[in-house]
Amino acid sequence: MAAITTLSSPKGSLFALHGDGLATAGTETEYVLVPDWARWMIVYLNVTAATGTIDLNINEVDPVALDDSYVVNLADWNGITQLTGVSQVVIHVGPGITGIADDDTGGATGDSVYKINSMLPPILQFVVIRGAGGGDTYTLNGVFKK
After folding, report:
1. What is the pLDDT of residues 58-82, one digit of tens each?
2. Conformational region of residue 94, where left means phi above 0, alpha means psi within -120 to 50, and beta covers everything else
3. What's the 3-state SS for the chain?
4. CA angle 75, 91, 35 (to 5 degrees)
5. Is the dihedral angle over the CA atoms 85, 104, 33, 66 positive or is it negative?
6. d(Cα 33, Cα 123) in Å, to the nearest integer?
7. Distance from C-alpha of 84 to C-alpha of 49, rounded to nearest angstrom
8. For 103-133, how does the pLDDT look when each residue is reduced to its tens digit (9 = 90+)?
9. What is the number of other CB atoms lying within 10 angstroms of the CB of residue 12?
10. Where are the domains positioned within the chain?
11. What does the alpha-carbon distance between residue 108 and residue 99 come to, in Å, rounded to a whole number?
């Protein structure tokens, strides 16, 4: 149980999160405040080098507790298919994006698009997990839409 103290605010409608080429396995966790006006979000994970594996999950945070013990998967979505090579992943999130069902099909390499039918919560948690091998280089960016 740890207090959440670092929140990133988008610059206008855009946000850029961590991207690195660390040589070890590990987890990067970052938090983003969702603007009040935002209805939809598009997230871009661009993997330019992958010697290990990469996972991405997006979670929602209790905005009052601000504690990482009170975090759940966004819309009960369990994240992308684990990536094993150079890839581009695009994730569309918002109400009515897919009708009533999510599009949760993606591949381990190449390009994948996910669609999550969910309202945006006030705070989002982004978790990138690099598996054994490290040396993964990626960027994680997004845009909020009205």
Report:
1. 999 999 999 999 999 999 999 999 9
2. left
3. CCECCCCECCECCEEEECCCCCCCCEEEEEEEECCCCCCEEEEEEEEEECCCCEEEEEEEECCCCCECCCEEEHHHCCCCCCECCCEEEEEEEECCCCCCCCECCCCCCEEEEEEEECCCCCEEEEEEEECCCCCCEEEEEEEEEC
4. 70
5. negative
6. 5
7. 10
8. 777 888 889 999 999 999 999 999 998 877 7
9. 8
10. 22-145
11. 26
Q: Burial letters for 19-49: b for 16+ Cβ neighbours within 10 Å, e otherwise? A: beeeeeeeebbbbbbbbeebebbbbebebee
pLDDT at 101: 67
In the numeric block, which tokens belong to residue 57? 């999950």
Q: Name which CATH class applies to 22-145.
A: mainly beta
Do residues 18 and 130 touch, judged by C-beta distance below 8 A?
no
Please give the structure tokens belonging to residue 55: 């996972």
Predicted TM-score of the model (pTM): 0.90
Q: Give the C-alpha distances (Å, rounded to integers) separating 40 from 27, 116, 138.
A: 26, 10, 23
